[in-house]
Specification:
By secondary structure, the protein is α/β, with parallel strands linked by helices. It contains nine helices and seven strands, in the order ααβαβαββαβαβαααβ. β1, α3 and β2 form a beta-alpha-beta unit. The longest helix has 15 residues.
């Protein structure tokens, strides 16, 4: 059982800001431009956190996105800060929306937090309209053989759920998605880690503070080193497969 949600920690906000992910809105904007999303499109932010992306899309592009997140604390903060938008409490494995509701779904550093990745991908496919877009930014392991060791740590963080990138791409394809773009942006993660070390003295110390000492930060960081974390963006488009 996971004993803490890293994204509810003030130390995460201190390092990452309101976006709670590497690179801020850089890859969000890349997704908007690549998919040519406009104010006419219905957009879902999967794992919306405090509503940073929903607010960015509205202020920058006049896109009225919908947000969903499993954290009561995050959803309450999102509603308080951005009361013009709709935010829902819920998980990616059971999206409370009708079939073919959205033109685009963003999952920015959140797929790695899902308990059931297969079900989440199927749900995203279901709620997307035909030819709809799935914009994913997240962390992955350059040494995926070491990922299983992360299961020994009881912390809810994207770094605990590092993707096997080849496996993720295969899951997307088998679910009916056509991958249009897949690029590495590990430099954004590296910049964030440097900031964490500068602020807290070491990554081990950062993990201890973030987890409120519910994990051994030193052991967690050593395990992450073996996994060799990276960061990526994948933009996929819903194809013609009908999953029922």
């Amino acid at each position: 059982m996971k004993c803490c949600n890293a994204y509810e920690s003030s130390s995460m906000v201190n390092i990452m800001g309101e976006t709670l992910r590497p690179g801020g809105f850089k890859l969000t904007e890349m997704g908007v431009q690549f998919c040519k999303i406009s104010q006419e499109d219905a957009v879902l932010d999967l794992g919306c956190g405090r509503g940073a992306t929903v607010n960015y899309l509205f202020e920058k592009h006049n896109i009225k996105a919908v947000g969903i997140d499993p954290s009561i604390k995050q959803i309450e903060a999102a509603k308080e800060q951005h009361n013009y938008a709709d935010f829902f409490l819920g998980s990616g494995e059971n999206l409370p929306f009708k079939d073919k509701s959205f033109n685009c779904v963003f999952a920015e550093c959140t797929l790695s937090l899902m308990d059931d990745l297969d079900s989440t991908i199927e749900q995203v496919y279901r709620v997307l309209k035909e030819d709809g877009w799935f914009v994913i930014t997240d962390v992955y392991a350059k040494n995926p053989d070491a990922v299983n060791e992360l299961n020994n740590f009881v912390i809810n963080s994207c770094m605990r759920g590092l993707h096997d990138l080849a496996n993720l791409e295969e899951k997307l394809k088998s679910s009916g998605f056509d991958i249009k773009l897949s690029e590495d942006y590990s430099q954004l993660l590296k910049e964030l880690l440097v900031k964490a070390v500068f602020t807290y003295g070491s990554m081990s110390a950062f993990w201890n503070v973030t987890s409120q000492d519910c994990i051994d930060g030193c052991k967690f960081q050593e395990t992450l080193k073996f996994c060799r974390p990276g960061y990526f963006i994948i933009i996929a488009r819903k194809g013609g497969m009908d999953l029922g």
